[in-house]
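Researcher: Next entry in the queue.
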Amino acid sequence: MLFPAATARALLAGFRVLGLDVEALQREAGLDASMLARLDGVFEDVCFERLWSAAFARAPREELPTEVGLAIPFGAFGALDYLAGTSADVEAGFVVFARHVRQVATQFRVEVGEGENGAGLVQLVWLRGAAVAQSGTCLPEFGGRDVSDEFTLATCIGRFKAQVDGAFRVSAVRLTRPAPAATTRHASLLGAPVTFGCAVSALEIARESWKASLRRADATLQETLRRLASHLELGEVSSDLELALRARLRVLLADGTPSAAVAAQSLGLTERTLQRQLKEAGTSFTRVLDEFRQAEAERHLSNGLPFADLALRLGFADQTTWNRAFRRWKGMSPRQWVLEHGAAVLPHSTVSGK
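Model: Structure for this entry, 354 residues:
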Protein backbone atom coordinates (compact mmCIF):
# COMPACT_ATOMS: atom_id res chain seq x y z
CA MET A 1 0.00 0.00 0.00
CA LEU A 2 1.21 3.50 -0.79
CA PHE A 3 0.61 6.29 1.70
CA PRO A 4 -0.45 9.56 -0.05
CA ALA A 5 1.41 12.70 0.99
CA ALA A 6 -1.96 14.47 1.20
CA THR A 7 -3.00 12.08 3.98
CA ALA A 8 0.34 12.53 5.71
CA ARG A 9 -0.11 16.31 5.68
CA ALA A 10 -3.61 16.02 7.10
CA LEU A 11 -2.44 13.62 9.80
CA LEU A 12 0.32 15.99 10.85
CA ALA A 13 -2.24 18.80 11.02
CA GLY A 14 -4.39 16.69 13.32
CA PHE A 15 -1.42 15.78 15.52
CA ARG A 16 -0.55 19.46 15.76
CA VAL A 17 -4.07 20.31 16.98
CA LEU A 18 -3.64 17.66 19.69
CA GLY A 19 -0.40 19.27 20.81
CA LEU A 20 2.08 16.68 19.52
CA ASP A 21 5.52 17.59 18.15
CA VAL A 22 4.84 17.18 14.42
CA GLU A 23 8.42 17.95 13.39
CA ALA A 24 9.67 15.07 15.52
CA LEU A 25 6.93 12.78 14.23
CA GLN A 26 7.84 13.65 10.65
CA ARG A 27 11.50 12.82 11.25
CA GLU A 28 10.80 9.54 13.03
CA ALA A 29 8.39 8.42 10.31
CA GLY A 30 10.93 9.18 7.59
CA LEU A 31 8.66 11.61 5.74
CA ASP A 32 10.87 13.45 3.26
CA ALA A 33 9.91 17.13 3.22
CA SER A 34 10.12 17.50 -0.56
CA MET A 35 7.87 14.49 -1.15
CA LEU A 36 5.52 15.66 1.59
CA ALA A 37 5.02 18.95 -0.25
CA ARG A 38 4.12 17.35 -3.58
CA LEU A 39 0.47 17.17 -4.63
CA ASP A 40 1.05 13.68 -6.03
CA GLY A 41 3.59 12.60 -3.41
CA VAL A 42 3.45 9.12 -1.89
CA PHE A 43 5.29 7.17 0.79
CA GLU A 44 5.67 3.46 1.48
CA ASP A 45 3.17 2.05 3.96
CA VAL A 46 5.96 1.60 6.52
CA CYS A 47 5.98 5.40 6.90
CA PHE A 48 2.31 5.28 7.93
CA GLU A 49 3.09 2.67 10.58
CA ARG A 50 6.15 4.56 11.85
CA LEU A 51 4.14 7.77 12.10
CA TRP A 52 1.47 6.16 14.23
CA SER A 53 4.02 4.28 16.35
CA ALA A 54 5.74 7.57 17.10
CA ALA A 55 2.39 9.22 17.91
CA PHE A 56 1.26 6.39 20.22
CA ALA A 57 4.59 6.60 22.04
CA ARG A 58 3.80 10.23 22.88
CA ALA A 59 0.06 9.81 23.45
CA PRO A 60 -0.60 6.16 24.47
CA ARG A 61 -4.37 6.29 24.28
CA GLU A 62 -6.68 3.69 22.69
CA GLU A 63 -8.76 6.47 21.16
CA LEU A 64 -5.87 8.36 19.52
CA PRO A 65 -6.85 7.52 15.88
CA THR A 66 -10.37 8.76 16.59
CA GLU A 67 -9.09 11.91 18.29
CA VAL A 68 -6.80 12.72 15.37
CA GLY A 69 -9.51 12.11 12.78
CA LEU A 70 -11.90 14.43 14.58
CA ALA A 71 -9.20 17.08 15.10
CA ILE A 72 -8.07 17.53 11.49
CA PRO A 73 -9.13 21.03 10.43
CA PHE A 74 -11.29 21.56 7.37
CA GLY A 75 -9.13 22.23 4.34
CA ALA A 76 -6.25 20.01 5.47
CA PHE A 77 -7.12 17.51 2.74
CA GLY A 78 -6.99 20.24 0.14
CA ALA A 79 -9.32 20.08 -2.85
CA LEU A 80 -11.02 16.93 -1.54
CA ASP A 81 -12.41 18.83 1.47
CA TYR A 82 -13.88 21.53 -0.73
CA LEU A 83 -15.20 19.15 -3.39
CA ALA A 84 -17.00 17.09 -0.76
CA GLY A 85 -17.94 20.08 1.38
CA THR A 86 -19.63 21.98 -1.45
CA SER A 87 -21.84 19.01 -2.36
CA ALA A 88 -25.60 19.42 -2.05
CA ASP A 89 -25.99 17.08 0.92
CA VAL A 90 -24.16 14.55 3.09
CA GLU A 91 -24.88 11.64 0.79
CA ALA A 92 -23.45 13.48 -2.23
CA GLY A 93 -20.40 14.44 -0.20
CA PHE A 94 -19.68 10.81 0.64
CA VAL A 95 -20.04 9.89 -3.03
CA VAL A 96 -17.30 12.44 -3.83
CA PHE A 97 -15.14 10.94 -1.08
CA ALA A 98 -15.67 7.41 -2.43
CA ARG A 99 -14.71 8.53 -5.93
CA HIS A 100 -11.51 10.10 -4.60
CA VAL A 101 -10.52 6.89 -2.79
CA ARG A 102 -11.10 4.91 -5.98
CA GLN A 103 -8.58 7.13 -7.76
CA VAL A 104 -5.81 7.01 -5.17
CA ALA A 105 -6.15 3.59 -3.54
CA THR A 106 -6.08 0.07 -4.95
CA GLN A 107 -6.23 -2.06 -1.81
CA PHE A 108 -9.47 -0.76 -0.37
CA ARG A 109 -12.55 1.03 -1.56
CA VAL A 110 -15.35 3.02 0.01
CA GLU A 111 -18.84 1.73 -0.67
CA VAL A 112 -21.70 4.18 -0.23
CA GLY A 113 -25.19 2.76 -0.01
CA GLU A 114 -28.43 2.63 1.91
CA GLY A 115 -28.95 0.83 5.18
CA GLU A 116 -32.15 0.10 7.07
CA ASN A 117 -34.95 2.68 7.14
CA GLY A 118 -33.23 4.86 4.58
CA ALA A 119 -30.12 5.39 6.68
CA GLY A 120 -26.82 6.01 4.95
CA LEU A 121 -24.25 3.22 4.96
CA VAL A 122 -20.53 3.86 4.38
CA GLN A 123 -18.24 0.82 4.34
CA LEU A 124 -14.44 0.50 4.03
CA VAL A 125 -13.76 -2.67 2.07
CA TRP A 126 -10.20 -3.98 1.84
CA LEU A 127 -9.33 -5.78 -1.37
CA ARG A 128 -5.84 -7.15 -0.77
CA GLY A 129 -6.94 -10.71 -0.09
CA ALA A 130 -9.27 -10.80 -3.09
CA ALA A 131 -6.69 -9.16 -5.33
CA VAL A 132 -4.04 -11.80 -4.74
CA ALA A 133 -6.24 -14.85 -4.33
CA GLN A 134 -6.25 -15.70 -8.02
CA SER A 135 -2.49 -15.29 -8.34
CA GLY A 136 -1.83 -17.89 -5.67
CA THR A 137 0.64 -15.55 -3.93
CA CYS A 138 0.19 -14.35 -0.37
CA LEU A 139 1.30 -10.77 0.17
CA PRO A 140 1.75 -9.34 3.68
CA GLU A 141 -1.26 -7.55 5.07
CA PHE A 142 -1.04 -3.80 5.54
CA GLY A 143 -0.07 -3.50 9.19
CA GLY A 144 -1.92 -0.25 9.78
CA ARG A 145 -5.31 -1.37 8.56
CA ASP A 146 -7.15 -1.14 11.89
CA VAL A 147 -5.72 2.28 12.70
CA SER A 148 -6.43 3.47 9.15
CA ASP A 149 -10.07 2.37 9.34
CA GLU A 150 -10.69 4.05 12.68
CA PHE A 151 -8.93 7.23 11.63
CA THR A 152 -10.80 7.38 8.29
CA LEU A 153 -14.26 6.97 9.80
CA ALA A 154 -13.52 9.51 12.54
CA THR A 155 -12.31 11.95 9.89
CA CYS A 156 -15.56 11.53 7.95
CA ILE A 157 -17.68 12.13 11.04
CA GLY A 158 -15.69 15.21 12.00
CA ARG A 159 -15.91 16.74 8.55
CA PHE A 160 -19.61 16.29 7.91
CA LYS A 161 -20.67 17.02 11.48
CA ALA A 162 -19.14 20.47 11.14
CA GLN A 163 -20.84 21.11 7.79
CA VAL A 164 -24.45 20.30 8.69
CA ASP A 165 -26.88 22.76 10.25
CA GLY A 166 -28.37 21.14 13.32
CA ALA A 167 -27.57 17.70 14.70
CA PHE A 168 -25.52 15.20 12.70
CA ARG A 169 -26.44 11.77 14.01
CA VAL A 170 -24.45 8.62 13.45
CA SER A 171 -26.49 5.55 14.34
CA ALA A 172 -23.62 3.09 14.65
CA VAL A 173 -19.90 2.69 14.11
CA ARG A 174 -18.30 -0.66 13.26
CA LEU A 175 -14.54 -1.13 13.54
CA THR A 176 -12.32 -4.06 12.54
CA ARG A 177 -9.88 -3.52 15.42
CA PRO A 178 -10.14 -5.93 18.35
CA ALA A 179 -12.12 -4.77 21.36
CA PRO A 180 -9.93 -2.88 23.86
CA ALA A 181 -9.25 -4.62 27.17
CA ALA A 182 -10.77 -1.72 29.11
CA THR A 183 -13.62 0.69 28.50
CA THR A 184 -12.70 3.51 26.13
CA ARG A 185 -14.15 6.89 25.09
CA HIS A 186 -14.86 5.83 21.50
CA ALA A 187 -18.64 6.01 21.81
CA SER A 188 -18.66 9.45 23.44
CA LEU A 189 -16.15 10.86 20.95
CA LEU A 190 -17.92 9.46 17.87
CA GLY A 191 -21.40 10.10 19.21
CA ALA A 192 -22.65 6.57 18.50
CA PRO A 193 -22.47 2.98 19.74
CA VAL A 194 -19.23 1.32 18.62
CA THR A 195 -18.83 -2.37 17.83
CA PHE A 196 -15.29 -3.77 17.65
CA GLY A 197 -13.97 -6.84 15.86
CA CYS A 198 -16.20 -6.48 12.81
CA ALA A 199 -15.35 -7.97 9.41
CA VAL A 200 -15.82 -4.56 7.74
CA SER A 201 -15.50 -1.08 9.20
CA ALA A 202 -18.56 1.04 8.56
CA LEU A 203 -20.72 4.01 9.52
CA GLU A 204 -24.50 4.03 9.71
CA ILE A 205 -25.84 7.57 9.41
CA ALA A 206 -29.41 8.43 10.39
CA ARG A 207 -31.65 9.25 7.41
CA GLU A 208 -32.27 12.85 8.44
CA SER A 209 -28.51 13.43 8.63
CA TRP A 210 -27.82 11.47 5.42
CA LYS A 211 -30.12 13.74 3.46
CA ALA A 212 -29.16 16.92 5.32
CA SER A 213 -27.96 19.88 3.25
CA LEU A 214 -24.39 21.00 3.69
CA ARG A 215 -23.68 24.50 4.92
CA ARG A 216 -21.10 25.09 2.19
CA ALA A 217 -23.23 23.65 -0.64
CA ASP A 218 -22.34 25.61 -3.79
CA ALA A 219 -22.92 24.05 -7.21
CA THR A 220 -20.96 26.76 -9.02
CA LEU A 221 -17.94 26.52 -6.74
CA GLN A 222 -17.95 22.74 -6.95
CA GLU A 223 -17.95 22.84 -10.76
CA THR A 224 -15.06 25.30 -10.66
CA LEU A 225 -13.12 23.01 -8.33
CA ARG A 226 -13.79 20.04 -10.59
CA ARG A 227 -12.38 21.96 -13.55
CA LEU A 228 -9.30 22.97 -11.58
CA ALA A 229 -8.83 19.38 -10.48
CA SER A 230 -8.88 18.34 -14.13
CA HIS A 231 -5.31 19.66 -14.41
CA LEU A 232 -4.26 16.58 -12.49
CA GLU A 233 -6.37 14.19 -14.55
CA LEU A 234 -4.73 10.96 -15.64
CA GLY A 235 -6.40 10.62 -19.06
CA GLU A 236 -8.93 8.22 -20.51
CA VAL A 237 -8.78 4.79 -18.92
CA SER A 238 -10.39 1.42 -19.52
CA SER A 239 -10.72 0.38 -15.87
CA ASP A 240 -10.21 1.46 -12.27
CA LEU A 241 -7.01 -0.60 -12.26
CA GLU A 242 -5.60 1.41 -15.17
CA LEU A 243 -6.55 4.64 -13.38
CA ALA A 244 -4.64 3.49 -10.28
CA LEU A 245 -1.70 2.34 -12.40
CA ARG A 246 -1.43 5.73 -14.11
CA ALA A 247 -1.43 7.46 -10.71
CA ARG A 248 1.50 5.27 -9.62
CA LEU A 249 3.35 5.79 -12.89
CA ARG A 250 3.30 9.55 -12.36
CA VAL A 251 5.49 8.97 -9.29
CA LEU A 252 7.53 5.98 -10.49
CA LEU A 253 8.60 7.54 -13.80
CA ALA A 254 10.74 10.11 -11.98
CA ASP A 255 13.09 7.26 -11.03
CA GLY A 256 13.38 5.91 -14.58
CA THR A 257 11.26 3.56 -16.69
CA PRO A 258 9.47 1.28 -14.21
CA SER A 259 9.13 -2.41 -14.95
CA ALA A 260 5.77 -4.16 -14.77
CA ALA A 261 7.04 -5.92 -11.64
CA VAL A 262 7.85 -2.64 -9.88
CA ALA A 263 4.52 -1.09 -10.88
CA ALA A 264 2.65 -4.19 -9.70
CA GLN A 265 4.42 -4.10 -6.35
CA SER A 266 3.46 -0.46 -5.87
CA LEU A 267 -0.17 -1.52 -6.30
CA GLY A 268 0.09 -4.46 -3.90
CA LEU A 269 -0.25 -6.96 -6.76
CA THR A 270 1.97 -9.56 -8.37
CA GLU A 271 3.21 -8.86 -11.88
CA ARG A 272 1.23 -11.83 -13.16
CA THR A 273 -2.01 -10.51 -11.64
CA LEU A 274 -1.43 -7.00 -12.98
CA GLN A 275 -0.77 -8.23 -16.51
CA ARG A 276 -3.77 -10.57 -16.44
CA GLN A 277 -6.18 -7.92 -15.19
CA LEU A 278 -4.94 -5.38 -17.72
CA LYS A 279 -5.39 -7.96 -20.48
CA GLU A 280 -8.96 -8.55 -19.33
CA ALA A 281 -9.51 -4.79 -19.58
CA GLY A 282 -8.27 -4.86 -23.18
CA THR A 283 -4.83 -3.35 -22.66
CA SER A 284 -1.32 -4.16 -21.38
CA PHE A 285 1.31 -2.65 -19.13
CA THR A 286 3.46 -1.60 -22.10
CA ARG A 287 0.52 0.10 -23.78
CA VAL A 288 -0.60 1.90 -20.61
CA LEU A 289 2.96 3.12 -20.00
CA ASP A 290 3.37 4.40 -23.54
CA GLU A 291 -0.03 6.12 -23.68
CA PHE A 292 0.45 7.68 -20.26
CA ARG A 293 3.87 9.03 -21.23
CA GLN A 294 2.34 10.58 -24.33
CA ALA A 295 -0.47 12.22 -22.34
CA GLU A 296 1.97 13.48 -19.70
CA ALA A 297 4.25 14.90 -22.41
CA GLU A 298 1.39 16.93 -23.87
CA ARG A 299 0.29 18.14 -20.44
CA HIS A 300 3.76 19.25 -19.38
CA LEU A 301 4.65 20.80 -22.73
CA SER A 302 1.43 22.82 -22.64
CA ASN A 303 2.49 24.10 -19.20
CA GLY A 304 5.94 25.11 -20.48
CA LEU A 305 8.08 22.50 -18.72
CA PRO A 306 11.65 22.58 -20.14
CA PHE A 307 12.47 19.72 -22.51
CA ALA A 308 15.38 18.45 -20.43
CA ASP A 309 13.25 18.33 -17.28
CA LEU A 310 10.44 16.59 -19.11
CA ALA A 311 12.73 13.82 -20.41
CA LEU A 312 13.66 13.01 -16.81
CA ARG A 313 10.07 13.41 -15.57
CA LEU A 314 8.91 10.79 -18.07
CA GLY A 315 11.63 8.32 -17.15
CA PHE A 316 13.70 8.48 -20.35
CA ALA A 317 17.41 7.76 -20.06
CA ASP A 318 18.38 10.73 -22.22
CA GLN A 319 16.93 13.49 -24.36
CA THR A 320 17.60 11.65 -27.61
CA THR A 321 15.45 8.70 -26.53
CA TRP A 322 12.72 11.08 -25.38
CA ASN A 323 12.81 13.00 -28.66
CA ARG A 324 12.58 9.77 -30.67
CA ALA A 325 9.57 8.62 -28.66
CA PHE A 326 7.80 11.93 -29.19
CA ARG A 327 8.36 11.76 -32.95
CA ARG A 328 6.81 8.29 -32.93
CA TRP A 329 3.75 9.63 -31.07
CA LYS A 330 3.22 12.87 -32.96
CA GLY A 331 5.21 12.65 -36.18
CA MET A 332 7.14 15.79 -35.23
CA SER A 333 9.68 17.04 -32.70
CA PRO A 334 8.62 18.41 -29.29
CA ARG A 335 9.70 21.90 -30.36
CA GLN A 336 7.53 21.76 -33.49
CA TRP A 337 4.59 20.55 -31.42
CA VAL A 338 5.02 23.40 -28.93
CA LEU A 339 5.16 25.97 -31.72
CA GLU A 340 2.05 24.56 -33.40
CA HIS A 341 0.06 24.41 -30.17
CA GLY A 342 1.18 27.78 -28.81
CA ALA A 343 2.47 26.78 -25.38
CA ALA A 344 2.66 29.70 -22.97
CA VAL A 345 6.40 29.26 -22.37
CA LEU A 346 8.84 27.78 -24.88
CA PRO A 347 10.89 25.04 -23.18
CA HIS A 348 14.48 26.07 -22.52
CA SER A 349 16.41 23.54 -24.57
CA THR A 350 18.36 23.57 -27.78
CA VAL A 351 18.99 19.84 -27.90
CA SER A 352 15.88 17.77 -27.28
CA GLY A 353 13.63 20.09 -29.24
CA LYS A 354 15.33 19.52 -32.56
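Model: The CA atoms of residues 108 and 125 lie 5 Å apart.
Researcher: Noted, moving on.
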